[in-house]
Amino acid sequence: MINLNLTKPIISLDEVLRYLGYNGQDISSQLMDNIKSCIDKVISICTPRCVCSEFDILHNKDGINLKNTSLILPGKDINKLLNNCKSCYIFAATIGSEIDRVLSYYQNIDMAKAVIMDAAATAGIEALCDDIQNQLESIAKKRNLLITWRFSCGYGDLPINLQPQILSILNAQKLTGITCSSSNIMLPQKSVTAIIGLTDIKNNGINITCETCRFNESCNLRKAGKSCGC
Q: 48, 89, 116, 182: least surrounded by Cβ within 10 Å?
């Protein structure tokens, strides 16, 4: 297991606006104050948790096998990502279950605020994952290794139904409280699992693009002909 220094995420106002589908529209001072208040609320109640381990990998005809586990990662996208890697980091992270309770509360009394809170929480878990990735990159550099982009179940052709197995090999339920429903939805809602390859080859792997992103069908930016810059 890899020890990481977890702190409350820094939630960017621009990222929250992006998740809200902001496209240059005028925003009233009252609405902006509401958005900033929601960001502050999410930061105050989030409890970041993460479990991360490194696994040696084997490439075979069925996909990428994680040594000493029964987990096989199938598909051309993950194979391309880990093509020149002998090992990978896998982590599960969450900003906690209190977010779920607050979101449920506002969904019953103020749907507009619930939408803003959800966007702030989404930006929060992504900021946490960015911080985790940066720490893992620093750890890898000490071994003269580079890391690939992080890749999650549901991206490209990597099946989302692998979530329970990933949580299981990480012992994530015990260590972080993250569980997975029968429909492969993680709880708490703002939770992520991700795979990051370790390599000594520069520019290895694939970029996350609109085509490989799990939000490609629902993304408001894509519908507007724009990109988040991934």
A: 182
C-alpha dihedral (155, 159, 165, 167), degrees to nearest 10 = 30
Distance, C-alpha 224 to centroid of its chain: 23
Does position 229 have pLDDT exceeding 80, yes or no? no
In order of their start, the domains of the chain are: 13-223 (3.40.109.40)
Separation of alpha carbons 171 and 204, rounded Å = 29
Helix spans in the chain (H): 13-19, 29-45, 76-81, 98-109, 111-141, 163-170, 172-176, 220-223
Do 177 and 191 touch, CB atoms closer than 8 A? no
| Sequence letter at residue 127 | A
**Dist CA 158 CA 73 (whole Å):** 7
Average pLDDT of the chain? 91
Number of helices followed by number of strands (H, E) in the chain: 8, 8
Percent residues over pLDDT 90 in the chain: 83
Block residue for tokens 């992006």:
18
Q: Is 191 helix (H, G, I), strand (E, B) or coil?
A: strand
Helix or strand holding residue 72 (H, E) = strand 72-73
Closest by CA position to 57, among listed 76, 82, 91, 92: 82
